[in-house]
Amino acid sequence: MNISLNITETIQEWLIGFMPEGVASILGMSIVALIYLAIFAVAGLYLVLLERKVAAWFQLRIGPNRVGYWGLFQTMADALKLVSKELTGTVKADKFLYNLAPYFVIISSLMALAVFPFTKEFQAFDINIGIFFLIAISSVGVIGILLAGWSSNNKFALIGAMRSGVQTISYELSIGLSLLTMVLLTGSLQLSEIVETQKEGWLILQGHVPAVIAFMIYMIAGTAETNRAPFDMVEAESELGAGFHTEYSGMKFAYFFLAEFINMFIIAAIATTVFFGAWLSPFGITESIPWLGVFWFLGKTLMLVFLMMWFRWTFPRLRVDQLLTLEWKYLLPINLVNIVIMAIIVWLNLTIKF
Amino acid sequence: METTLVKSNFKSEEYFINMGPQHPATHGVLRLLLTIDGEIIKKVEPDLGYIHRSIEKMCERDSYQQIVHLTDRMDYLSSHINNEAVCLTVENALQLELPDRVKVIRTILSELTRIASHCLWWGVMGMDVGALTTYFYGFRDREMINDIFEETCGARLTMNYNIPGGLMFDIHPNFVQRTKDFIAHFKTKLPEYDTLLTGNVIFQKRTKGVGVLSKEDAISFGASGPVGRGSGYSCDVRKHHPYSAYDRVTFNEALKTEGDTFARYQVRIQEMWEAMSIIEQLIDNIPEGEHKVATNAVIKLPKGEYYQKVETARGELGVYIISTGTKNPYRLKFRSPGFSNLSLLNHIAVGGKIGDLVASMATLDLVIPDIDR
Amino acid sequence: MSYISDIYTGIKTLLTGMSVTGKYFLTSRKGAITQQYPDNRSTLKMFERFRGEVVMPHDENNEHQCTGCQKCELACPNGSIEIIWDRGIDEATGKKKKFIDKHIYHLGLCTMCGLCIEACPTDAIVWAQNFENSTYDRTQLTKVLNRPGSKVKAGVED
Lengths: 354, 373, 158
What we know:
The structure holds three protein chains of three kinds.
Chain A (H helix, E strand, L loop, with lengths): L6 H10 L4 H38 L15 H10 L11 H18 L17 H22 L3 H32 L4 H7 L5 H4 L1 H18 L11 H4 L9 H26 L17 H22 L5 H28 L7
Chain B lengths: L14 E5 L11 E7 L2 E8 L7 H5 L4 H8 L7 H16 L5 H30 L4 H19 L9 E2 L2 E2 L7 H24 L2 H7 L7 H7 L3 H5 L7 H4 L20 H23 L20 E8 L4 E8 L7 E5 L1 H7 L1 H5 L4 H11 L3 H5 L1
Antiparallel strand pairs in B: 1-2, 2-3, 4-5, 6-7, 7-8
Helix pairs in contact in B: 2-3, 3-4, 4-5, 4-11, 4-14, 5-6, 6-11, 11-14
Chain C lengths: L1 H25 L1 H4 L21 E3 L7 E2 L6 H5 L5 E9 L6 E11 L8 H5 L6 E3 L13 E3 L6 E2 L6
Parallel strand pairs in C: 2-7
Antiparallel strand pairs in C: 1-5, 3-4, 4-6
């Protein structure tokens, strides 16, 4: 039986068979959401393991290799341990906000995963404002961090949360502007349209010079957005303990931790979609087998995730004021000039098409 | 209608933060009481004594051969040099003439210890500013030195190999070859350290112009070692008051004048190159001879006061013994380099940010057991 | 113009830094310096001078070389060695001689300084290379170095 790759429609049509339409659509969406949640929760765990192994190889050692062959069950064991921990709370912490904060962070991460085109038509939610939706949802995560820092009633956590808030808000500008540069080439915000225009060559090749500059700015801003080194003043382990999640333990800490890795995956996935052609194979070699697109997508995303890990384990940290100087005095002006250059190139039809 | 602007006496709240005894960035158990205003530091007050083990008092009860093993544990990263300091004080007081072989071997071991200490310092410096891989590269090279020590002396960290009168036993036959192999290996690695950290634009922005110490302040606070040399104060004990075999080797003293964190960093890297050149000059011509001079089983120093200073990896260590002619010292005092270097932390950190404090402390290279004894 | 040259030099230094770690990543299989400790006990060989623990070697007739002179007890800085001795008649010469009943060694107090081994005139105690000395019970760290029923080898003082 040929299962179409458009899972949302498949499930809904199956359900309409025995339910009224309204209930079927809601139930269908919930089922798709549960499937994504299950897959990405496990995927988040394996991203953590990948980070640990990659970090170990950079540092001349072997990563986890005891729990299961190659350490494959290591993060499962860690997750079990975290689930069994006591959920402590400080005495004077604001209980409601303290418990609410992790949910903001994890929900915004998981919602953003809904719009990615894993392969042709395998998209849970294909709306016409795709990129705008992604940027908006990732901004919601900041609220979680600020709430966590404030409600912990801990000076260190508060300093960490304030720094993180400032950092995230500043770098969202750069992300938005560099993605806007690429939207100039495609003319549409909808993600499946963006992939369609890349059938004539990936966007990073189509808009040559400004696209490469936009990609570099996007990678820097994306690393800063997820609070990873070299921009991880927030969780600067050698300075202030653990930053905004000092007072969290057990499952709530697991939410923050997992959300960081899923955010990293999201930034890499956006870059793959917009710059490198999502599920399209280079030179169209496997066009005839649509489901291989998932492997191309994951491969490209994992390459970019590896690049972000490489940044983390090589560079020292930037100080908070240097971080903000980088954004406002260097990245933003270059971004604006880049948009103008890209606009001129598109207007004069100087893009490279295959 | 007039509105009057009420000038309120608004002073933003100053935070009081405790960088407590257990902290990843203070190298050991050091408690710093910070008064900060937002991100700017207003006052730093160190609180010592968490690892005080009354070493100086224990030295009043031990005989002179037994004192040496206590000094290992003071500044454990330059344990050889600490041992040498006490042994030299006792030997100068007894006016013993040491054979050349002992002097040359002690110098080679001191320089190897210096390289090992600076390797660890480099790794930890990278880790403090955020580059977490440098720690492992530094330790990989330090492991080779530890293997050399383990083969000859039997221990990796607290060697207790010097005794008053010479060395406890002779060096292992493989010592010379292993040291030469290590020098050849390390010469290819030290430029890599430069590529990875020194030339990095982020690192330079983090350390240039940070924690500036002028030459007059360095002299008045009593800074010694690389901290003083980074500000232009020429204070190398090996040059000004040579001991062991330092008068027969030629080496440059690493001096920089800017006095900021980057200058101290460069001074230590330069010291590693100089240490390698000293070892190269000595390793091929170790004179033959006895490895120790016979002393009495019970050593008694003649009545008087004796002082000897040596250059450890941190700075100038002084040993001061008052003897009343008995078999234990009446009083033994160590002038530790870390204590004077820590006293200038308040001076260089005020006005900077917390990130600057961490970077400056990393270049002061404090080992807290040295300060607390 | 220095704005652009700053950016250019900055990016160049960052890329050279990344090349160093990248090179280690690619050679990580044989460059790893981890020793997988409990699994490699069969091939692990410590250096012969390594200071693990003080032992008293006994030969095949269960004889050791300790004459009870107490030089090691005097040399030890913190009292990790206690010798319980007695005087008795030596069979060979008929004169009164010291012999040891127990040579007690407190491994929990020992700082591995090596002064006792240097002080011993008959090489009765030496270093052993085993470093896995941790136990669950502190009384097991007080060891008696001479085996039961052993006696001193004849003619060792000469």
